[in-house]
Amino acid sequence: MPPGLYERLIDAELAEALAATQLRAVSSAVDAADAPHVLTTHLAGRIESALSQVDAGERLALANRLLDVLPEASPLREGRPAKPSKSGSAKTQPASPDQLLSLSRPTFDAPPERPEIPLADVALLTNGPQDPALAAELIKEMASADRVDLLGSFIKWTGVRTLMPGLESLARRGVPIRVLTTTYIGATDRKALDKLAKLGAQVRVNYFSASTKLHAKAWIFHRDSGYSTAYIGSSNLSRSAMTDGVEWNVRVSQVATPHVLSKFAATFETYWSSSDYEHYNPATDADRLEEALRDARGMSGPSVTTTSVTALAVRPYPHQQLMLEELEAEREGGHHANLLVAATGTGKTVVAALDYARLVDRLNGEGRRVLPRLLFVAHRKEILLQALRTYRDVLRDGSFGELFVDGQRPSSGDHVFASVQSLRNPEIFEPDRFDVVVIDEFHHAHAASYRKVLSHFTPMELLGLTATPERGDGVSVAEEFFGGRIASELRLWDALDADLLVPFHYFGIADGTDLSRVSFRRGQYDQAELSRLYLADRERAAKIVENTTKYVTDVAQMRALGFCVTVEHARFMADYFTDAGIPALMLHGGSSRGEREDGLAALRSGEVKVVFTVDLFNEGLDIPDVDTIIMARPTQSATIFLQQLGRGLRRTPTKAVLTVLDFVGHQNADFRFDIKLRALTGLGRHKLRKAVEAGFPFLPAGCHIELDRVTQDEVLKNLARKVKLSASQLIRDIADHGGASPYTLRSYLHDADRALADIYGAGGATASINGRKVPRSWQALASYAFDEGKTIGEASVVELELLKRIRAFTHVDDLSRIRAYREILTGLAFAETESEAAKVVCGLGDNRAYAPMLFYSLWPTGDSSQMTAKLWQAARSSLLRSEIEQVLDVREEISRTVARRLDGRLAGLPIRSHARYSREELLAAFGVGTQDTEKPGNVREGVKYVAHLGVDILLVTLKKSEADFSPSTLYRDYAISPSCFHWESQSTTAENSPTGQRYINHASRGSGVVIFVREAKTGDIGTEPYTCLGTARYLTHRGSKPMAIEWELDRAMPAQVLATSKLVS
C-alpha cells in the first residue's frame, strides 16, 4: 500500500496487510453518529464488486440474500424475460430486476420527458461536446418536477428566454417556483424578474448589493417520488452561461448524494426565510428595483443629507438583535446605566433607536402612545442628523425629534438631539427632564463638557455608545462610569459574519527573540526590559521589514499602523523602516495635536507608508484606509489586541482585506496565547488547540489565520500549558493574585482574566494535589493556595462528593433560578431539624418548584422522597453552600439572558424560555423524578413524553458527531428562521404512529411541545447544557421514519442560538 491519507474501514484483509507493512499506520474509531454513513459507503463498494464478479444470472439471487438479513427489507422481483436475440436463438438473456421509471395519472397522455442524466446519477457538465446542453437538461428537469427553487446572484432576460418552454410548462401545471436573486453589480434584468413573476414564480431580492454574499448559482428540482435533483455551479441564468460559456456545473441527486441535497434544500429555506431577501412584486417594487440596479452599476446621483422618514421598516440584524437582548437583560437585572461597545459602522445608533422603540412599546398599551423624553448627545452635527433620521425611521414618525446644534434650538424640548457644545450650560433643562439619555462616542466622557452633562442629568435610562471603552490615557470608561460592566459588546467574529467589517488575513511570524527571562506579571511584560531587548535587536527589525515586504501585496500602496512597546521603540522602528526604503514616522500619546494631524494626513496621502505608535488607540486615530497592522510587540490582553486589530477593520471601497503581521517570540512561561486567539476566532478552550493544529479551518468567510512552523509549535506548547491548567498551576496563580484568604471566586476570575471553565472545566471533576485526590473546585484550590489545604482536609466524605457536582451550576443564567437556589440554600441552612427543613421547603411559595431542580443537580439519580433531607444536609455545609453561591454570583454578573415564562398552561412551571438547563434540571422541572418513578439522571433519549402534563420534550443536539464537520449528520436539526425550527424525529417514528400523530395533532389534542437545543454534547465544562426555545407548534412535515418536522416557536429564539443553529451566516 502506498503512503498517504485513507478513510478505509479495517477488515481482516486490511489488518493483515497493515501487519506486514513497514509504514506507520494511524487509525481511530468511527464516530457513532457517522457510522451508518461510513458503513454504507464501505458496503456499497464491496457489494458492487461482488455483484460484478458473479455470473449475471446469480446477481438477483445474491442481492435478495443480502436483503434477507436486513429488517423490513422487501426482496427484489425478477423482471420479465428478455426477448430472444435477433439471430433467432431461443436462448434468453439472464433475468434482472425491473426498474420503475415513472408513475403518472391516467389522464396524462405520456410520462414526462426524462433528463439525459439518470435521476440517480451525478455528473459534471462543462458545455463540452459530449455533455448534454445545460439549458436542455434544465427544461427536461422541469418537466417532472413537483417544486422548483432557483438561486442566482443575477438573472438575465436572455437566460429566462432560453428556458421559456420549461418555465411555461411549470406555470401550466401550477408547479410552485421560488427564485432568490440580488442586485449584485446591477446585472439582473428587471424584465426577467417581471416575466418570472407573471409566470407565477415567487421572487425575492436582496437589495444590498454592497455587502451581499450571494454568489451561488444553483437549481433544485424537488420530486415527491424521492428522486430530487440539483445543479450547482458557475452558470448564472443567462444565455451564454447555459450554452457556450466556459462553465462548470455539477448535477447531484437525492439518491447518490443525499447529504448534498439535504444541505441545499435546508440552506435555500434559510435564505428564503431571511429578512435580507424581500418579496418582489412588479406592480409595487419595480421602481425600487430599477434604482437599486442603477446604484449597483454606479449610476446613482449624488447623495443628499436628509432627515425624512423612509417607508421601509427598520429590522435589526442578528448582531443588533443580540445587543438588544443583552441590554434588556441588564435592565431586568436592575442596571439602568449601560454601555454598548461595537466597532464603527456596525449600527450602534440603530441599536439605540430600536432600544428606544422597545421602551416605547413597553410603556404603551392598546391605543396609547406615550414617547419617553429623550436626549441624544454627540459632538458633530453630521452624527446628530444621521441619528435623528435613524430614530424617525425606526419609529416611523417623520416629525420626531428636534436638533439643538449650530444655533438651532428645540421648541418643545421633549426629544432633543444635541451637540455637547450646545449643552455647555445643561442647567437650561431640569435634571430629571429626560427619561432616556444616549451619549454617542462615550469614550469622550472624561472631557469636562461631557462630565458636565453626565453629572447634571438624572435619567431613568442612560445608554453610552462607543467603539472602544478605552480612553486616550488607557483608562476604561466602563470601569469609571459603569462599575466595570459592559452591557453588550459586539464580538469580532459576529461582525465579520454579518459582513460589517473587512475580512482579516492574520500571519503569526516567529521573530527569533527570547522573552522567557523578561519580567512578566499580571498579564504584562515589563515595558522597559522589553524595550531594551528590542532596541538592541536590529536583526528582529530586519525580519519585520522582510516579512512586511513578503506578505503585503504592494508596499508602495500600503497604509500601515505598527504597535510598539515604548516611544523609543516606535522611533527605532520608524527610523529602521525609513532607512530600508519604506517611509515611516512615529506618533504617541504625547505627540501634539498638530503632529498627529500632519502624520495621519501623510499616511492617508501615501507620503508615509507606516505610522508606528504606542498605546494610541482612538483619539484622532480613525483612518479607514489602514490596510495593514504590524504588531511589533507582544500583547496578551484581548481588549488591547482587538483595539489594535480594529484600527484596520473599517470597510472602504478599495480595501478587500486587512493584513495583520504579528511577530511572535519565545514567550515567558506565564504568557497566554489563548486569550487573544479566542478573541480572534470565537472558539472555546477545548476547540482552540485543535484549530491551531488543523490550520483554523472554520473562520468567517474571507478570513485566514496562518502560523509559521515555529510559531505554531510555540503556540501549541503554550496552549498545552495554559488552556488546561493543572491544579498546582491554578493554586500558584490564585495565591499570586489573592494574597490572603478570604478571596472570592469572582475576584480571582476578574483579576486573572479567567473563566469558570478554568476552574471546573479541565481534567474532570477531581484533581490530584500533593498526592491527594480532591474535588476540582474553588474551595479546594483556594484552601491549598491560602491555608495549605487545611480547610478542604477537614471536609467530610459527603461534602467532597458533592463538590464534584458544582460544575452542574456553571451554566445557570436566569435570575429567577439563581435567586430561588439562593433562597432554598439560605433558608435550609438555618433549619435546626429535618422537620424545620420541611417547613422551610413548604414555605418557599413559587420557589418551591425549584427544589427538585436543585436536588437532581446534586443527586441526578436520587430518591425524591429524600429530597428535603438531602438538600438540608447540603445547605448545612458552609463549604458547599459557599461554593454554589459563589458560582451563582459569577453567573449573575455575566449572564445576559432575557428569560420568560412558558406560554399557556405551562406558565406555572419553573422553566424559562431562553435560559439554559442541564438535562437533570429541565426534566425535574417537568416533574420527572417527582411525579413518576423515572430518575432524571437515567433519561438518555433525545425525546421525552411527560404524560401527566401532556408535553413532548425535544432535546436537540445540533452536532451529533464529535467531528467538526460531518456531512451525514449536520443537516437534520437547524433553524430556518428566528421563529421556525427544522427537527428530525427518531428514526423509528412513523407519521402514522401514535407518537407521529401526537406531534402532528398536538394542538387539537391539547398536548404541548417544548424544544431544548444545544450545539454539541460536550463543551468547556463537560456536558453541555440545553437552551430552552420554549413552546412550539406543528407547521408541516415530510417523510416518515424519521419525520422531518418544521416547528413554529411561540417566542423567537435568542440571537446567539440562531447564529449557531442556522446553516448560513
Automatic annotation (TrEMBL):
Entry-linked SUPFAM superfamilies: P-loop containing nucleoside triphosphate hydrolases (SSF52540), Phospholipase D/nuclease (SSF56024)
Helicase ATP-binding domain: residues covered: 329-473
Positions of the PLD phosphodiesterase domain: 210-241
Annotated Gene3D superfamilies: Endonuclease Chain A, P-loop containing nucleotide triphosphate hydrolases
GO annotation terms (biological process): phosphorus metabolic process
Listed Polar residues bias regions: 86-105
Positions of the UniProt region annotated as Disordered: 73-112
A molecular function GO annotation: ATP binding
Matches recorded under InterPro entries: ATP-dep_Helicase, DUF3427, Helicase/UvrB_N, Helicase_ATP-bd, Helicase_C-like, P-loop_NTPase, PLD-like_dom, PLipase_D/transphosphatidylase
Domain Helicase C-terminal: residue ranges: 547-696
Protein name: DUF3427 domain-containing protein
Organism per entry: Trueperella pecoris
